[in-house]
Design brief:
Length: 355
């Protein structure tokens, strides 16, 4: 070093070109300084509830007195338990989907309600006066005696069978029906069924105090009790065509009470029945809704009697959210578009005469 440099810097600092070496500690384990004390859990909880949006929880830790903190804690816990209880009750009611009935009115005008559908079903479904012509119409030419007997057995089964009991057709299993497998059964049933002019006395039908031709009111329709003649129905193709051509169909009444319903006379003729049968020429009267296919509740009509049936329909309207329920709970089926009206309370009378 030069003399001038030494005069200016009396103290000389030596720089090492390699890494600095730390001094060795004393023998034994190294000791680290302890961490500063952290925040206690109580203080953290108090800080969290101090900024909480739960009502009352700020006061549980902010109040100076113990009894005040206990009071606010009781209030907050009680409110929470009450809220959970109400939530569980409402959730249970929503899952249960209870039906609630409300009576809107018991004085709905009768002309707002569709008149029920009335079905007349003979006990015997075959008019045996047309049996010889049916044999020539539906069997091939020159049928054998065995084929003719099989055809008569088929007619005997069709005479008494319906959609509720097919067990009477078991007797046909013992016969060879191979030659009858291509027979159009539906056309055969329609051909042998009783027609309107064969059942009703001419000019005997009266509806809403107005005389009608019975064949204009009653149309053939397949029901649970076989082929019947039905009034004011919307099930068969004939009924749907009538609705397109008549804007007042299904029919309604202008007034209620006696002499305001449907009245007709049935022609009791045993000549249409099969020989050797002791049963009288009786009828089944079925009253159902216009859009209902069949009804299990029926009435039996016997010859030489006058029958009066009083109908008391109760009409119900359902809300649209009912369609979300299962059919087992609501106990009815809806159309695919909306819930249709079934009825309100009204009073109707239907007169039936059987001669």
């Amino acid at each position: 070093m030069s003399d001038n440099f030494r005069k200016l810097f009396p103290f000389v600092m030596l720089l090492y070109t390699k890494e600095l070496v730390a001094p060795r500690p004393k023998p034994g384990l190294l000791r680290f300084r302890t961490k500063p004390p952290g925040i206690k859990y109580r203080d953290r909880l108090r800080s969290s509830f101090a900024h909480s949006t739960i009502h009352g929880m700020q006061n549980v830790f902010a109040e100076p007195h113990l009894w005040q903190r206990c009071l606010w804690l009781t209030i907050a816990l009680g409110a929470g338990i009450t809220g959970l209880s109400l939530y569980s009750v409402l959730r249970h009611r929503h899952n249960e989907q209870l039906l609630v009935s409300l009576i809107d009115t018991t004085q709905l005008p009768v002309y707002h309600i569709d008149f029920p559908a009335v079905a007349i079903c003979p006990w015997s479904h075959v008019n045996w006066q047309r049996a010889p012509s049916a044999l020539l119409r539906f069997l091939p030419r020159n049928p054998s005696a065995e084929l003719q007997e099989s055809f008569r057995q088929v007619l005997s089964v069709l005479d008494v069978v319906n959609f509720s009991n097919f067990y009477r057709a078991r007797a046909l299993g013992e016969r060879n029906l191979t030659e009858l497998r291509f027979m159009p059964m539906q056309k055969l049933v329609n051909y042998l069924a009783y027609r309107c002019d064969e059942l009703f006395v001419p000019d005997s039908c009266v509806f809403d105090e107005t005389p009608y031709d019975c064949c204009r009111l009653f149309v053939p329709e397949q029901t649970e009790h076989g082929q019947c003649l039905v009034f004011n129905s919307l099930i068969s193709e004939h009924s749907r065509k009538k609705q397109l051509t008549n804007k007042f169909y299904p029919y309604k009444l202008s007034t209620a009470g006696e002499e305001s319903g449907l009245q007709f006379t049935i022609n009791s003729s045993n000549s249409h029945m099969r020989g050797g049968i002791k049963l009288p020429f009786g009828m089944i009267l079925m009253i159902k809704e216009p859009r209902q296919w069949s009804n299990q509740l029926t009435y039996q009509l016997y010859p030489d009697t006058e029958n009066l049936v009083a109908v008391h329909p109760m009409v119900m309207e359902t809300s649209h959210n009912t369609i979300d329920m299962s059919p087992s709970k609501r106990r009815c089926f809806f159309d695919t578009t909306c819930c249709r009206t079934i009825g309100r309370i009204a009073w109707l009378h239907v007169f039936m005469k059987l001669c």
